[in-house]
Design brief:
There is one protein chain. By secondary structure, the protein is of the alpha+beta class. It has a domain of 111 residues: 2-Layer Sandwich (Enolase-like, domain 1), CATH 3.30.390.50. The protein has a five-stranded antiparallel β-sheet. It has a four-stranded antiparallel β-sheet with strand order 9-10-11-12. It has a three-stranded parallel β-sheet with strand order 1-3-2, with helices on one face. The longest helix has 22 residues. The chain is globular, with a radius of gyration of 20 Å. The structure holds flavin-adenine dinucleotide and iron/sulfur cluster. Iron/sulfur cluster binds next to loops.
């Protein structure tokens, strides 16, 4: 049995109190929402905060509402509730699809969207017990000086593994972040970095309080397609979010198209597409094949998770096609 190390728990009842606590502990405290990522990482001694700042007593952070042309999602909204929210199902069905495939039902009732956005990166050599890691000699992400994935590598390439992130990128979401000095908004694209040790532009006293999603224009179709070993519980081995805006809806000419891929690198990646060439075409099988091939060229998985990189790469175009089929089927 794995035991938790000793730590204190603080239970603030407001964002101001929570950010003041995080600031006062100067990097030695961590926020905790559902704890479904933080607790295992503490048991594995990957995260070792002296103080856990529980967010569960801050009621303002729960729920989804519409503010004009934007959906505002409170960071403490559980994945279970988000997947069933009528506003999300109507305007951002791919987000519902993604969060409904996170882990299993129990974890989705505890896990929150804020915790999912802020999920730590994962790697086959780090998500192990302290004893296991000590036997191997540790690595750059925690306690060591080498990378076991890229021999001689000086950078950690642990994989971004949060299912919501690529969908939020295709939706053009912004994060509302509070700290003791005030609030700011950050485009989700700019929030993630390529540093697998910590892949977020988030200071120790920053709290993600909400996610704002612009309501997609009429004619937008979207989906999330996920590759995982067991559909019941596993993290993504590959996650593909697709979105297209079609003039007049299904069968109409492409106005905009976007594909973001996750679980291959330390941040979710946007596939570079020749939008000028795609605009004005219909989203038919030939066009989807072209987009799928562009994704294949862009994605070069590493051996950072257990499944073979070559297999995951072959699955990229398959899941791009599957994503567009899901999106068009729904519309
Ligand atoms: C068996 C298992 C399977 C899983 N499968 C998946 C999967 O398939 N896909 C997937 O995406 N995830 C998966 N997870 C991870 C996790 O359950 C989800 O990502 C969940 O959404 C995390 O939310 P949480 O509220 O529990 O986060 P927490 O564990 O509370 O927090 C996660 C991280 O974010 C920080 N944090 C939390 N909230 C905030 C905030 N508001 N502002 C700033 N920082 C914050 C914490 O300090 C911590 O570092 C799995 C976990 C387990 C144990
Ligand atoms: S990618 Fe390398 S440094 Fe990062 S967690 Fe894996 S083995 Fe460690």
């Amino acid at each position: 049995m794995l035991r938790l190390p000793k730590f204190e728990v603080a239970e603030p009842t407001s964002v101001a109190e929570a950010t003041a606590l995080l600031k006062a502990h100067d990097g030695r405290a961590k926020p905790m929402a559902g704890g479904t990522d933080l607790m295992p990482n503490m048991k594995h001694e990957i995260a070792t905060p002296d103080v856990v700042v529980g967010l569960w007593r801050i009621p303002d952070l729960v729920g989804v509402r519409r503010d004009g042309d934007t959906l505002r999602i409170g960071a403490l909204t559980t994945l279970h509730d988000l997947a069933r929210d009528p506003l999300i199902l109507e305007h951002a069905p791919a987000l519902a699809e993604a969060v409904d495939q996170v882990a299993g039902p129990q974890l989705r009732r505890m896990g929150t969207i804020g915790g999912n956005v802020c999920l730590d990166t994962r790697c086959v050599y780090i998500n192990q017990t302290y004893f296991w890691r000590s036997a191997l000699g540790f690595c750059l992400k925690r306690d060591g000086t080498v990378c076991h994935v890229v021999k001689g590598g000086r950078r950690c390439v642990a994989a971004a593994s949060n299912d919501s992130a690529p969908v939020l990128m295709t939706l053009g979401a912004e994060l509302e972040i509070h700290n003791a000095d005030g609030a700011r908004k950050v485009a989700i694209d700019d929030f993630y970095t390529t540093d697998g040790i910590f892949n977020q532009e988030r200071a120790a006293d920053d709290l993600v309080t909400a996610i704002e999603v612009p309501i997609p224009k009429p004619g937008t179709v979207m989906a999330y397609a996920k590759l995982r070993t067991r559909a019941a519980i596993d993290f993504p081995e590959l996650g593909v979010a697709v979105l297209a805006r079609l003039a007049g809806g299904k069968g109409g000419k492409i106005e905009h198209v976007d594909v973001c891929v996750t679980a291959l690198a330390s941040r979710p990646v946007r596939v570079k597409l020749d939008l000028d060439a795609l605009r004005g075409r219909t989203l038919d099988a030939a066009t989807i094949d072209q987009i799928a091939n562009a994704a294949y060229k862009r994605c070069k998985p590493l051996k950072n998770i257990a499944t073979e990189p070559a297999y995951r790469r072959e699955m990229v175009p398959v899941f791009v096609r599957r994503g567009f089929r899901q999106a068009l089927g729904r519309s």
